[in-house]
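ingest -> fold -> write
write: protein_1
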Amino acid sequence: MTCNAKLDVVLLLDGSGSLGNAGWKAEIKAAQLLVDAFSSTGAQAKLAVTLYSGPGTWRGVARCTGKDNKGRRFQMNPRRSKYQNGLTAANFQLHPEVDMETDCNIKTVDHFTFDTKKVKDDLGELVFPRGSTLTSLALMNAYTEISLGRSDAKSIVIAITDGKPLYSGATKEAARLLRTKARLVWVPVTRNAPLWRIKKWATRRWQENVVEVKTIEDLEKPDVVTHVIANICPKPEAAWAQQLTAHDARKENQGADSNNAAAAQAYQGGIRVAR
């Protein structure tokens, strides 16, 4: 399935160690299939990609999520894993000495671009970071990227994850803020992902914005990408009418087949059915 709608799409890829090598390879394959869906003739989508994980130590995590001595960065209560003053675009500021990529393992692979071939090639060259899971920071990075998008394009963020974020409260707040600017779609992989939380973090209705993947093996199947594209890509009215007509025709044929089968069964039983 392909999509020619005018969309600005940010793809968030989980690089946490819990994925394992098999999961990492499956995720990259799924991401490349997603890129292919926006590569057809007449495509109008711009794509951006962020690879996220997190520091390997709690001290490193604190540098990326805590409060510095000048009051900048996140202000988090570590006991309750909630922001003390609420997360806003204004208070999302990393200390100048903290680098998003080298310190926090949040890597912007590609900013918004029409060059899907480059995006696909860049995905193939990524190295598995095997870090922690700073999902909240990845969502805020997507929020920043969305500001670079087109004013007349619909903004969509697709987040793939296989496990729990380090801070669920922070992730909830970051998701809430991001939803004010973009449609937030989740692809939770395996039962390790906190599905009940993800349903709350996704854009409403969650049934149209959460594509659950049961196993790592399922992630690399085309069905997952087809499901995502079917949810996010608006179809022309004519296409919808054509699909509805085909659907009605199938129902009518099924009804006729059912009536014929009932008539044949009744006849065989000695009961004459008026046709």
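write: protein_2
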Amino acid sequence: MGFHRAGWAVLMLAIAACGGATPTPEAPKTATADQAANAAKTTTNTTTNTSDPKTQPSAPTATAASPSGTAAQAKEGAASAVEPGAASTQADEAIALPDLAEAPGSSELESGAQAIQQEGWIVAQQRLGLALENLAKTNNNPDALLVGYALLGRSCSKGRSPRCAEKSYQKVINLWSDPATAQALKNRGSDAAARARHGRAALAAGEAMLFFAERMRADLERVRMPEYKGNTDRESISAFVRKDVAAFVQRKQSLIDEVDLAYGRIVEIQPAPPQLSVFAAARRAMMRGKLHAELRAAPLPRSWTRTGKDPATGLSYEVIRKHYFMAIDELGEPLRARARTSYQACSALAGHLSVENEYSRNCATWLEKNATR
């Protein structure tokens, strides 16, 4: 089976609903698979990428500002996502699956999944809630429970019930992290049906991890580059970069490192969902690239945009701007090098998993524009 854009749109819109953000552009559709198969390749109508944070493509955002919980709760949820049987390298087999709402893999979940496809969020919550009650009585099918809780989380997100979404997605992560789940999935065997069940379980786990990772990233976006409002002499400008800008970089890098781990857990899911894995890798790279771009993107003092000379120093405004950007670029070069490493990892993963979409192209384009000189 190939990938279905409509299903991905529902998934990403659902996650976005917790923060009220609009998905622009559409994120890739979750599909469980691994590197070796010729997984279906998706294409999109737009390919945008630049080092300017104002023009970088954005995916649906689940903001931490929603009443669904704090950043600490999001961090806790993301940190608890440990994959059953996670390996250090990607597995050799790939299974391309449709969206969970289109093929939940369990007859008990079909009615609730159909309600999600019809955007009947309240009905979906009711049907899935009853189905999960019945499934939980035996707990013999952890893959069905994982899918059911993920779909419930999605219906809650889209239905503007953020606390319900958080609770449901946390159940997915808790179940996925339980060693008993890994053993149960292993006991199912290795035939095509068993691999599909494991694939759907991984797909559900990835959706839950994405929910928490996106919320953490929303907190990161609130940390802004300081604007210079000081004097025009070189000493004042240099001091601003050494102190204020350096402090901003240190703080934001620390936050990026935490969010990076959350997206990294998605990349490490086994069996790997190719589209979602590449999306998470692109997120990691874009955070690093945006930090580098932010240094130059902060507004300059209005007087610096003029021609002529500054009356206080006698220096031309062109010289003042040049000094400012030289100091900024010196501080930012290590950030660009680190971003390059992340973009290289994204591009390599996309090739490894045979994924070609907007996000894989963003990674490749950034590397072209920021080639080592």
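write: annotation protein_2
Residues 317-352 form the longest helix (36 residues).
The chain has one domain: 5-369.
pipeline exit 0
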